[in-house]
Amino acid sequence: MSEREQRMEDLMLVDSPEFERILECVFGIQAHETRTYFRLLELQGSTVAELADALERDRSNVNRALSTLCEKELVERERRLLEGGGYVYQYFAVPVPEAQELMHQAVDEWSETVHGRIDEFGP
To answer: What residue stretch is flagged as signal peptide (predicted)?
Structure first.
């Protein structure tokens, strides 16, 4: 059983799971990545340094969290050119309704897999 499947199974045992736990379970992310997502919702367009300061975390940890969140399509990254030359990346959390839709799609896919396993069972 994969870690994601184990998380889904664990989540099913909770009567009223918190949204944050569902987010972690569905996307296979850690609590600190969830905190990063929610903080970025408040600070749209932040750089890694700005977000690290807001979260009181090391920049390398925040950078890794943002990379994971980008992979999961919960965060988008845009490059902004600086006046003096060079560039910086700004990060934007996808709106909660969009994250909810992604979560619904993932749960629907998982549910189809479970229904398939149920249908396969038998003599």
So the answer is: none
Question: What average pLDDT is seen over the chain?
Answer: 89
* Residues 12, 5 contacting (CB under 8 angstroms): no
User: Which pair of structure tokens corresponds to residue 123?
Assistant: 């003599």
Cα distance from N-terminal residue to C-terminal residue, the chain: 23
How far is 55 from 105, CA to CA, in rounded Å? Answer: 30
CATH number of the structural domain spanning residue 16? 1.10.10.10
Number of domains observed in the structure of the chain: 1
pLDDT at 117: 85
Contact 36, 54 (CB under 8 A): no
